[in-house]
Fold Phosphocarrier protein HPr.
Amino acid sequence: MFLLIIDQRRMIEMEKRQYNITAETGIHARPATLLVQTASKFNSDITLEYQEKSVNLKSIMGVMSLGVGQSASVTITADGEDEKEALDAISETMKSEGLTD
């Protein structure tokens, strides 16, 4: 019972953001690399979810395996001590790369 309470509390505290991909080419090699580099700067566990599949955003192979295209809806979740800062930086990278508005 105690572990369940910890897990529920942890889930509530995670940062989660949803994005609509507007780039014509979706998340291809260059922006995927930049997203992975940005995520790798942080200690938090960071995941990218697309079509009910979830991958580690610190893994280029994982990100590329999703095949995220234009008009896709993705969710990025961060869990850890620097989760908010991580998602802020990832959001900025997505905007600067023209992946989302």
User: Anything to note?
Assistant: The first strand starts at residue 15 and ends at 20. The helical segments are 2-13, 29-39, 60-66, 83-96.
